[in-house]
């Protein structure tokens, strides 16, 4: 499906926007080694943590192998690692090494708390709903949520709509537990994406069920999978401080087809024992949330636009987990692809 309005390289005539820096996904990990009792290693890698542990274990000065105790997926791995190191500075055994004398459970809990700071709503410049963050390859994002956070999916009617012009809310989502994660991942084409709420056949299938090549490390439980079409906007609202007169808001705008994935490591249940899904609401949006939504609906048109799909309007392409998490590919394949991308970027002066 072709875009009816193409993205511009310049500032949008429709209003101010914020293009995010190009980002890839990485991990902050917690490692242990039986030869180093009482110590943990906390660092980041853009490979799988198992690859990093294996590389460290091959060092001639390391008598036993490292074990991966925990990993946190993020698009801001450098900032996350830095914050974790700052929180645990008193336990660092050497300022030039990434080893800390803390129990494993404390190290893991510290990483989890820091994820909420680095990927949480405050990190995105709250209240800037008139300056949407643009999402397009390679601007993949990972959001750390708090229970009760609300997302409003906005679709523009387009230039050729018989229903008039402007924004319309087409869906409302809710996070149900602290630490839940919502990822928005640009796709190459519409057929790579699937949506549960519009009845796509593969809308309930987990695109990345495991976080390692051996399929031993389960990902968070998939509780929502939705599509974004070019021009769609997602308004993130949070009033976790329980102050109903105020809420924090962040606006995202899709420049490409995107896959939305919602996961939980502590799923909450309905009264009949089923996990609460992304599109199940257990609260009413606060008056401040309603006001922020009304403000977003009044904003100018998007930079790019395509009509929203109906169920299975495009056949779902066969997509492997490696498409969404490139680290799952064998390292040799990733290295070759990275070299090709570097050559291409150099050719285009990037």
TrEMBL record:
Residues 331-350 have a biased composition (Basic residues). Residues 303-350 are annotated as: Disordered. It holds the Pfam family T5orf172. Residues 34-114 form the Bacteriophage T5 Orf172 DNA-binding domain. It comes from the Bacteria. InterPro entries: Phage_T5_Orf172_DNA-bd. This is GIY-YIG nuclease family protein. It comes from Amycolatopsis thermalba.
């Amino acid at each position: 499906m072709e875009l009816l309005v193409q993205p511009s390289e310049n500032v949008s005539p429709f209003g101010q926007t914020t293009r995010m820096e190009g980002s890839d996904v990485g991990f902050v990990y917690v490692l242990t080694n039986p030869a180093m009792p009482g110590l943990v290693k906390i660092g980041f890698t853009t490979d799988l943590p198992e690859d990093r542990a294996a590389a460290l274990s091959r060092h001639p000065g390391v008598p036993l192998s490292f074990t991966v105790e925990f990993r946190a997926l993020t698009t801001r791995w450098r900032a996350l690692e830095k914050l974790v190191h700052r929180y645990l500075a008193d336990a660092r055994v050497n300022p030039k090494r990434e080893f800390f004398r803390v129990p494993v459970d404390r190290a893991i809990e510290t990483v989890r708390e820091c994820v909420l700071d680095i990927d949480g709503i405050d990190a995105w410049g709250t209240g800037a709903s008139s300056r949407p963050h643009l999402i397009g390859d390679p601007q993949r994002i990972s959001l750390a949520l708090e229970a009760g956070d609300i997302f409003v999916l906005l679709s523009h009617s387009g230039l050729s709509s018989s229903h008039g012009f402007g924004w319309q809310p087409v869906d409302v989502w809710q996070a149900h537990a602290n630490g839940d994660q919502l990822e928005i991942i640009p796709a190459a084409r519409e057929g790579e994406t699937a949506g549960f709420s519009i009845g796509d056949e593969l809308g309930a299938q987990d695109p990345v069920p495991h976080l390692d090549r051996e399929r031993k490390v389960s990902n968070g439980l998939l509780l929502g999978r939705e599509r974004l079409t070019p021009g769609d906007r997602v308004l993130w609202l949070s009033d976790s401080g329980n102050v109903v007169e105020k809420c924090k808001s962040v606006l995202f705008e899709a420049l490409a087809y995107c896959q939305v994935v919602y996961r939980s490591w502590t799923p909450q249940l309905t009264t009949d024992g089923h996990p609460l899904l992304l599109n199940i609401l257990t609260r009413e949006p606060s008056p401040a949330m309603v006001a922020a939504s009304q403000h977003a609906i009044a904003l100018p048109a998007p930079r790019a636009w395509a009509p929203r799909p109906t169920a299975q309007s495009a056949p779902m392409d066969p997509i492997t987990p490696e498409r969404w998490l490139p680290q799952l590919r064998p390292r040799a394949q990733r290295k070759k692809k990275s070299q090709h991308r570097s050559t291409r970027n150099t050719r285009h002066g990037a």
